[in-house]
Amino acid sequence: MDGLRILGAHGGRSKGGIATTCLQVSKHIVIDAGNILEALGEEALHVDHIFFTHSHLDHLIDGAFIVDNFFAKRTKPLRFYGLQKTLDAIKEHLFNGEIWPDFSSLKLLKVDLPAVEFVPIVPNVAYEIDGYILTPILANHTVPCCGYEVTKEGSGIFFTGDTADHEGLWEYLNKALHVKAFIVDVSFPSNLGGVAQLSKHFSPHALAQGFRRLKRANLLCYVYHLKPAYAQEISQELERLSCVTAILKGGEVLKYASGALIPKEEVTDKIRILNSIGAALSAQNQIESLLEMIVAQAKKITHADGGTLYLLQEEALHFKVVQTDSLGIRMGGLGEPIAWSSLPLYQEDGTPNTTMVAVTCALRGEPISIPDVYEAEGFNFEGTKRFDANTGYRSRSMLVLPLRNHENEIIGVLQLLNKNQEKEEGVFSAEDADIGLSLASQAAVALTNTMLIGDLEALLEGFLKSIIYTIKMKSPYTAGHIERMVEMTMMFAKKVHQDEKTFPSKAYDHQGLKQLHFAALMHDIGKLATPEYVLDKQTKLEGIFDRIALVEERLKALELRCEIAYLKGEISLSEREIKVQECMQILGLLKGANLGMECVSSHQMEAIWRLAREPFVIAGVPYKILSEDEAKHLSVQRGTLTQEERDIINDHASITLDILTKLPFPKKYKEVPQISANHHEKISGKGYPQGLKGDEISFEARMLAIADIFEALTAADRPYKKANSLSSAMRILYFMAKDNELDKELVKFFYTSGLYLEYAKTHLPPHLIDEVEVDFETL
């Protein structure tokens, strides 16, 4: 729905569709309850929020019946919003256990929740639901009353509620420039102005007087709440007022963006039903309701008596909803599950099961119309005939429609039965097939979004967010790496998509980009299994704590031992000074080596191992400065990790692959595991975890590899290493491509497209952005 739908617009009930106040804001929201059930029918089940203007019966009557009608089907409370005194009056005089049951104290059958919840509202406070904002504005009536400003995407319509003239109304309208139209109450003709004033309603004369205070010329004015007995007289008066745009009679729609009116004649049943199917895209958590609605609306739009909805699962059509109005049959959906056997697409010998009309429709992907199933040839209707024999029903005409999702795949079949005999002699027409296919298409999209996008993608994205959050709690540096690497990967993909020379056949639609986004997000998911002390190891001796502190304490103890030996006369003053100086030099060497910022020279490595193998002697007593394990860690030439620790970190790729291959990715994201897990593979075949080489590594995994390495080289937030300059990082990429570790064409494109510089300007400090002198054309 793209506008405010008028379900009821009169100040009383009468014949000819004259119904009391009710406005539908969206599929789930209405203002007042004067005509919900008659106007919406089965769609009324989806109303979850009713905003009341006041407590008079003509504005709340269906609030009682909607709860009663759908009590067994509802899965969430129906919320009643209103001023506190309005809700108090409703509870005291209607839902009081005497006039009507107190549904706020009764639990729904399907969930342990009350059937009704009362929600007090406060004037001038905005309430947002599903993207719609409703703001109550006080009115001037005989009981506490408010109107509602309804806005969507910045534009709105104001509904005054029942009201007499008051200064606040015009002050509000003069200030609320985003309001494009307002609906105002005119209940009595001007010759009954005294009655209007006493009952606090507008008359045409009073409205004209009020308009003198309106300072806006671009505001549309719609009148509602005409009392049926005076409707003709009021209409004649209002026609003479240039300020009134139109008189609402019910069935119209006012567009939120412009306030323009779509007449009732244009808001046909078929358009409304198709729009309601489109609106079902948002009902991701009510799949059963959606299935029922599809069948019910399809029957309504084609004037069919019965309908069956099948979904295609594991090469068989499974019954999901069965409805037959004349027999009162309601199966599946929110009701009892259907125990009927599914219809296999293929016989046991592998041949298509074309004897079943629904299966044939699914296999062919085309609508099938049958004037009379008893005279049809080529299909087996024994099940239909048995149903007729058991129920006394007579199945005749049938229209069978395929449901195609947005990927043009058949996901189910909609079968309609027995066209109304008063409509074209009971035979479904070509128009029925066309409109039915349109509905089936929207239904399939709604189903796909609800079941696939709504469930799998929401689960997947939620899972990813929780994983990234967990990684962030464990290793902020890794989380930062993932965020930047994802950003660079998406920049890379978009550059490739825009390129028409180097990679003309490579293009990424929304789905392809999303798959790549997921893959980049999950590329380091295996690091969840990597110990923290290895993952973010800042120094070579870091474990549970940095063991350099122990080494430092040993050396301080040795200095103290030298002092004691000197005082005891065991060593001379010069020997003491030499030994203390030697301790300080050793500590400087070990502290420097521990940081891992610089490459350890062979001379330094020899000195480190000598400290582990040769004792430090004071007055003839040997002392050990380093253990062999400490020497092993300190003698790591580059970085802070030993080979064993590097192997532990490298295991994250195989763990990533193991995790992702166990996840049930939808078909369109089936490449995520291999893209994520293969970003450490090398073109030469010397990478990991699988040792893939050449074309065995996907194009996308090769992109991830470059993004992963470049981010790691230029990251400035790692405490255990310095960030490389831009020229240094690009030189390393160049030689990795030269050595057949990275894809040469992609590395060259990374440079020639300017992507490297674009990223650097955003993420590198200015002093690291220097001139790149490597000639990438030589790759």
Automatic annotation (TrEMBL):
CDD domains linked to this entry: class_II_PDE_MBL-fold, HDc
UniProt cross-references to Pfam families, sorted A to Z: GAF, HD_5, PDEase_II
Domain spans labelled HD-GYP: 551-765
Coiled-coil region: none
Protein species of origin: Sulfurospirillum tamanense
Record-linked SUPFAM superfamilies: GAF domain-like, HD-domain/PDEase-like, Metallo-hydrolase/oxidoreductase
SMART domains linked to this entry: GAF, HDc
Name of protein: GAF domain-containing protein
InterPro entries per the UniProt record, alphabetical: GAF, GAF-like_dom_sf, HD/PDEase_dom, HD_GYP_dom, Pdiesterase2, RibonucZ/Hydroxyglut_hydro
